[in-house]
Amino acid sequence: MKRNMIQWLDELKSAKVKKSMPLLSFPGIQLTGETVQTLVTDANAQALVMKKVSERIPSLASVSLMDLSVEAECFGAQVVFSEDEVPTIVGKVVSTYEEARNMRVPKVGEKRTGIYIDAIKKASALITDRPIFAGVIGSFSLAGRLVDVTEAMINCYEEPEMMKIVLEKCTDFLIEYVRAYKQAGANGVVIAEPLTGLLSPDLAEEFSEPYIKKLIDSCQSEDFILIYHNCGNSVIRIIDSILNTGAKAYHFGNAIDMREMMPHIPSDIVAMGNIDPAGEFKNGTPESITNVTTKLLKDCSKYPNFLISSGCDIPPQASWENIDAYFQAIESFYKSI
């Protein structure tokens, strides 16, 4: 369903009682009985999980799978699948400048990208009471999966031109991929750019910012917004570069303190974060997640542009008892003020 997403963001900031938008999709397998492997290879299973999750939680939006292997697989990377865990990439696709020059930019729809686009189309027909967000990887994080994460850091110094060729090709692909999500019915996309969190401010400005900005400028509109996610522990050091990308909202991981981050965020920009996905949603208790959720709300709710969320994608085997306690804690907090 088409929505004015700029207006949607303005309403979130002005609301006295705020809802949450956790990166929550994979735990839906516990509601449908599917495996993770089925979920990442079947559009119908993805759409059903999104629907079941949206029926279970009072979230601001429905967020699809944050499977950061999809785009790299499309470029030829090897993917390791598991019944219980999110897919991972092994090996690399590009090692030399010549290989970077010859690397083909795949068509959107190849490999599993077609499945993910179809899942958003199906989900948008099932979920009409809230916006729907797809998930994609960011340019530098995708490049890191193609050249190897460690090599990506080294190449920023030793092979910068090779890295920039790879980054340009990744960005060109991602622009078309995001546009396909928009056409399929998504109201926006969450861009996961975690690898940039390992870069210095200068390197982030050179090897991530311009490519993410190009992606955002090419796709963002009144009815379609992009949310930038980074779960690195040094994002406060590169926050100026991150904000320069022009996303309409930002989502941060639990490696940082949101109390330290919020003063850096302009009041007209929404910032989300950052309850620990593994430590609390998966391995915590209803009591512990209630306590940390309430504390974060007490610390940051004074900022109208703050929205509580998970720190990153919530693992498939996260406890639904903990997830329910998280939402109950948010409801109780706003009832008490």
Residues in helix, %: 40-55%
Shape: globular
Distance between the termini: 33 Å
| Low-pLDDT residue intervals, each spanning 5 or more residues | none
Helical segment count: 17
Strand order of the largest sheet: 1-4-5-6-7-8-9
Listing every helix as H and every strand as E from the N terminus to the C terminus, the arrangement reads HHHHEHEEHHEHHHEHHEHEHEHHEH
Average pLDDT metric: 97
Biggest sheet descriptor: 7 strands, parallel
Helix and strand composition category: alpha/beta
> What's the total count of β strands?
9
Kindly estimate the percentage of residues that lie in beta strands according to DSSP.
5-15%
Cα gyration radius (Å) = 19 Å
Structural account:
There is one protein chain. By secondary structure, the chain is an alpha/beta fold. The chain has 17 helices and 9 strands. It has helices spanning about 5-15, 30, 35-40, 45-55, 70-75, 95-100, 115-125, 140-145, 150-160, 160-185, 200-205, 210-220, 240-245, 260, 275-280, 285-300, 320-335, and strands spanning about 60-65, 80, 90, 130-135, 190, 225-230, 250, 270-275, 305-310. The strands form 2 sheets. It has a 7-stranded parallel β-sheet with strand order 1-4-5-6-7-8-9, sandwiched between helices. A two-stranded antiparallel ribbon has the order 2-3. Strand 6 (about 225-230), helix 13 and strand 7 (about 250) form a beta-alpha-beta unit. It is globular.
